[in-house]
Structures are given as C-alpha cells and as structure tokens.
Write a structure and sequence with these properties.
The complex is a heterodimer of chains A (368) and B (268). Chain A is mainly α. Chain A has helices at 2-15, 44-56, 68-79, 86-98, 104-115, 125-142, 145-162, 184-201, 204-219, 246-252, 254-262, 268-279, 308-322, 342-352, 361-365; strands at 17-18, 23-24, 27-31, 34-38, 181-183, 230-232, 237-240, 244-245, 290-292, 295-297, 300-303, 334-337. With 268 residues, chain B is an alpha/beta fold. The chains are: A mainly alpha (368), B alpha/beta (268).
Chain lengths: 368, 268
C-alpha cells in the first residue's frame, strides 16, 4: 500500500539522520536488518536538503515526532558555511517556500546570483533548474514579484542556453566538453522546473516545450520501463543505459511525469507504471529494488567492474564518434548496487507523499 | 493617401501577394502615390541577414519558395485571379517599375539615407512586407503608422514560426494585423482575419494562404483609414507568450499532424 510505504519510508529516512550533525547520511547499507550510515562525503549537505524537502511533504502524523521546520532551522544554523553551492541554495529556497518557512536570507542569496552577470550561464543544468524551482515556488507561494522576475530570467537562460530545440533534450552545461551529454537526473530537474514555472507564469510556449519534451523522453524509455542514465542532447539518443538508478524509476521521473499527468498528458501514467514496475523486479536481473519492511531501496543496476564513471564517459564519446546507439548489456555483466542514499528516499517522499491517499496512486505504483 | 511599402532582399522578392497588393493599392482612387522601400538591398547585407536567420538548408528552401514557389493547385488558382499582367513571374521591384512606382534601395531601413528619403516623401501609411524588424525611427515617420501582418492570433502567439505553433497548439489559423511599436509583436491590433486551412495543406500552403490574407488585410486597413473607421485595440504585455523558432523534432511533429489531418480547424 502506498500509504504504508510512505510510513515505512519515513522510518527508514529517519534512521539515516544524525541529530547531532543535523545531517542525513551520504550512503547507507543494510547489514543484518540494520541501517549503517556514512556521513563523510560533503554531498551530505545536498542530500539533507533533499531529505528535508521530502519530509516536508509528509503529513505530520506520519513524521514520528520529527519537526521538519525546527530541524531545517537547526540544519541551516549548524551548516550555514557549507550551503554555498548555487543549486543547493535553489533547492533550499524551494524547501523553505513549500514549507512556508522564513526564506528571506536564502532568497536574497539566490537573487544575487541571478543578477550577477553571466553566473547563471556558468552553472550546470541541475543547479540552474534547482534555482528555477526555488524561485518559482517562492513566487508562487509568497506572491513575491522579485522572485517571479528572477525566475523569468532564469527560464529564459535555460531556454536559450540549455535547450537543444532540435531534439528537445537539455544540455548538461551551456558550454564545455560534457555539454551534450546529459543524465536522466538533469532531464528530470529540467522538466520539473520548466513545467512548474510555465504553469506559474502562464507561459504557453514553455509549457508546450515541457509537454513535448516529456513525450520525447517517454519515447526513450526502455523495454522494461527503465530510464537510461546518459543521453546525447545533440543527437537525441541514449549513449549509455547504465547505471539504471532506482531513484529515477521510483521518484525522479515522477517529478515531471506526475505534473504532466495532472496537466492531461495521456502517456504519463503508463510511463510511471512501467518505471515503478522495473523497481519491483521487472528488470534485467529480475531483482526487486525496493523493499517495504524494513523499507529500503537498492541504488542501481550497474555494470560490474572498476572505474564505472570514467568508463561511462569514455563509452559515451566512443558511441558519439562512431554514431552507434547504446545497447543493454548482457545480464552476466550486471550487478545490483545494494547501497541506498538518503536523497533517494527524500525524492520518494517528495513525489508520492502528497498523493499517497489519492485514488489511483496504487495503480501507478503497482504496489497493490 | 501616400503609402510606403517596406520590403527586403529585392533580388529574391518574388512573392505574388506583394505584386497583387501593390497593384490593388494603386487602383484605389484615394491613393495618390506608393513607394517601395527596400532594406537589405545589397548582396552582402542579404547574406548577413540570411546567415543570422537561417541554416544553409533552410536558406535554400526559402530561396526556392521566394520564386512564388507554392506549387499547389489552389495557389495557382489564386494567382490566376490576379489579372494577366501579374501572371508574369517577376519581382516586386520590377512590378513597381512597370507601374511607374518609385523604388528605393537601402542597406538598412534605419540608414540616414533611408530616413532622409522617408522624411522628404512624407508617407501617410506604411506597410511592412519585409518580415523583418523596422526601427522606431522609421515606423514613427508615417502619420498613421506602419502596419504589419502577424501569422497567428495576437496576443496569444507572439514570436517566430507562428504558423507551425498555431498548428501544434491546434488553434484556428489567424492573421493579425498590428501597428508596429516598440515591443516585439506588442503593437495595437487593428484586424484579425481567419485563414482557410483545407485537408492536405502543408505548412508551405498555409503560409502562402496567410500571405494572401495579409495582403487582403492591408487593403482593408487602408480602406478603414480612408473612411476614418480604423479601430486599434491595445495588447496587454501580460497576455500571450513569446514563441521561439521551432526545432526539427517539433517541425516533424507539426508536419505529421498535417499529413495525418489531425488539425481540428479544417474548413472542408
């Protein structure tokens, strides 16, 4: 049941929390039924914002006494010197806005970045999209005109510098060697930000781009419902399928598919269904990637062997040079990556908690 | 009434609707004189603009279509109604010369020489057939303003590739005439005219029909100015969206919509 899954997911996520550090873990593994956490990576700051954002969407009676507002304020006070990345600031503004918390200082910091000459164009897609999401929710929920104008500027930069109009896929960066290679994560944040901004601003052009780009991405969904990891925005093709991440299947695809489903895109619900089905075991390895009791998700199905990131990039360049398409790897060369990261549960809650009790959600998640 | 027609790229300026409009304007009793003013007249300027606006493939396609190149029977029927002298293929400038109409060529509309000519010629009305930006110094010269045709419904669909976006959004095809002003596609709207789209029409066919409706609209506007009945409705900047040039993926989608006749606003 989705409601039970939400409840269990909250429990698992709170097991990844350090009340001393005011941080959620970078990585967690399940050993003998217990969660073992690692807080050593600096990304814990980003993951904590993400986890708090997910928890902010959960009805308070499921939060087991965890006070999101109080813990967010404590996190900001204790880690203020670490919240310096533009994308993190954008995501934090989104969190503070959707939770109706005091956001003035972080809003000022984000507005300053938008006004700084050329700064937005130098960020990655993920960072610039999180800024747009933050400004959009700030403008939407507080009626702040400054945020709306800044959001308009950022959306314009995204449309002009980060969108390949020929393929409707976004670029990873406005310039640079990796520009054309975009991950599914980047695509998700791009479509999430564009869909919410275009609805807020009543921008029919960007709304149409978001809808048609969503259709385009759905067309690239794999035969088992998997969302490939790496895409060539210039050719509009997949350049590497792996790793196939559970968080993409269970949560991040829903960041744009659920809003598009609500806007009437017929193709969205079946795509959600196929994607979640992958995580429930309908995948190349026939492995379940999400467990309800104790709640836990396995991170990905990946190729075996070392230096996977370097191999992925090299493979993408080779396939681009030879104009070959990426193919699914043989089963024997794949394995499950058993770790879990807190942000993955954060996105799960963010995507599903607000609608867990709505009719039809069970069908979408196929958790019946 | 003294009317100036703004056009561009004189060497390629062979659209039949322009020649028809020029001849029809000269037929009106109240029209004293018409002048044709070209911007981007030199090859160098034409190449610069083309390079900025079009890819090589698109440039070649446009070159082909500038020869009056809409090949459907319907367009040939439309041309047949123009009168024998207009059936001769030729440019607007050669048509103007035949009709003893003044033709002036400038590198750009905002050139000092262009402004000097217009200031001395003192047009009452300007009609923009260039499809290009007309600077404020130019559009503020004619007393009644400069009018342009926009191939979509204003204010809803502003910007570029508007015929394709209209099909994509499944909206009725409209040509909106506006008074040119500072904001891009933000001028007061003086006329909205429905364009008939039939099953089997391609984007090229629809564009060609828009041009004919554009020419008819210009004649109607000039008539309304003469009779003092022209009504200009201001646009709100907050209404509508600015659409950008469509990329290949969506171009293909629009072509498929038309090919499969999935557009909802066919006349037949």
């Amino acid at each position: 049941m989705p409601t039970k899954s939400i409840d269990n997911c909250v429990g698992a996520l709170l097991d990844m929390y350090s009340s001393d550090k005011k941080l959620f873990s970078f990585s967690s593994v399940l050993r003998s039924g217990k969660i073992v956490n690692d807080f050593t990576n600096p990304s814990t700051v980003r993951y904590t914002i993400n986890s708090l954002l997910g928890l902010s969407q959960v009805p308070s009676h499921w939060l087991r006494g965890f006070d999101v507002e109080k813990e967010t304020a404590a996190f900001m006070a204790q880690n203020s010197t670490s919240i310096v990345n533009a994308g993190d600031q954008g995501l934090l503004l989104h969190l503070l806005s959707v939770s109706a918390m005091e956001s003035d200082s972080i809003r000022r910091a984000v507005l300053q970045r938008v006004r700084a000459d050329g700064e937005i164009g130098r960020l990655t897609l993920q960072e610039v999209c999180w800024i747009l999401s933050g400004l959009s929710s700030s403008a939407d929920l507080t009626g702040d005109e400054e945020s709306l104008e800044a959001a308009r500027q950022v959306a314009e930069t995204i449309e002009q510098s980060f969108l390949n109009r020929d393929t409707l896929l976004p670029f990873h960066q406005a310039s640079g060697l990796r520009r054309r290679f975009v991950s599914f994560g980047g695509i998700s944040y791009f479509l999430m930000a564009l869909t919410s901004y275009s609805s807020l601003a009543g921008n029919e052009y960007l709304a149409t781009v978001a809808r048609e780009a969503t259709r385009r991405v759905i067309d690239l969904q794999g035969p088992d419902g998997e969302w490939a990891w790496f895409y060539d925005a210039d050719r509009g093709v997949i350049v590497d399928w792996y790793e196939v991440y559970s968080v993409h299947q269970l949560s991040m695809a829903q960041l744009f598919l659920l809003p598009q489903h609500n806007l009437g895109l017929d193709e969205a619900a079946p795509a959600i269904s196929r994607g979640t089905s992958w995580a429930l075991g309908h995948n190349q390895l026939d492995e379940r990637m999400i467990y309800d009791e104790p709640f836990f998700t396995h991170r990905s199905i990946r190729r075996k062997g070392p230096a996977t990131r370097a191999r992925r990039l090299a493979g993408a360049w080779i396939r681009t040079g030879t104009r070959l398409g990426a193919r699914p790897a043989p089963k024997w060369s794949l394995e499950v990556n058993p770790e879990c990261r807190s942000y993955e549960l954060g996105w799960f809650l963010y995507a599903w908690a607000p609608i867990a009790e709505l009719p039809g959600t069970e069908d979408l998640l196929r958790l019946k | 009434m003294r009317i100036v027609i703004f056009s561009a790229f004189p060497l390629l300026d062979r659209h039949p609707y322009k020649r028809r409009l020029l001849a029809s304007l000269l037929d009106q009793e109240y029209v004293e004189e018409v002048a044709v003013v070209y911007g981007y007249s030199s090859l160098l300027e034409s190449a610069r603009v083309a390079k900025r606006l079009y890819t090589i493939t698109e440039g070649i396609r446009r070159l082909k279509s500038s020869g009056g190149g809409d090949s459907s029977e319907r367009m040939n029927d439309a041309r047949a109604s123009m009168g024998p002298e207009l059936l001769e293929e030729g440019s607007l400038s050669s048509q103007a010369s035949k009709l003893q109409t003044e033709v002036k060529r400038f590198d750009r509309f905002g050139d000092a020489a262009c402004l000097k000519f217009l200031a001395e010629w003192q047009p009452d009305v300007g009609i923009n057939l260039s499809g290009l930006y007309i600077p404020e110094a130019v559009y503020s010269l004619p007393e009644k303003g400069v009018f342009g045709g926009h191939f979509a419904e204003l204010p809803r669909i502003r910007g570029a590739d508007t015929v394709r976006w209209t099909v994509m959004l499944d909206q009725p095809m409209i040509v909106s005439h506006q008074v040119l002003s500072k904001g891009y596609d933000l001028g007061d709207v003086v006329l909205r005219s429905r364009v008939t789209v039939n099953r089997g029409d391609t984007i090229g066919d629809i564009r060609a029909k828009c041009r004919e409706v554009h020419a008819d609209g210009c004649l109607e506007i000039v008539d309304s100015i003469q009779s003092g009945q022209l009504v200009a409705t201001p646009q709100s900047k907050l209404e509508g969206s600015h659409f950008r040039k469509m990329g290949k993926h969506l171009e293909g989608a629009v072509d498929r919509i038309l090919k499969l006749e999935r557009y909802s606003h066919y006349a037949d």
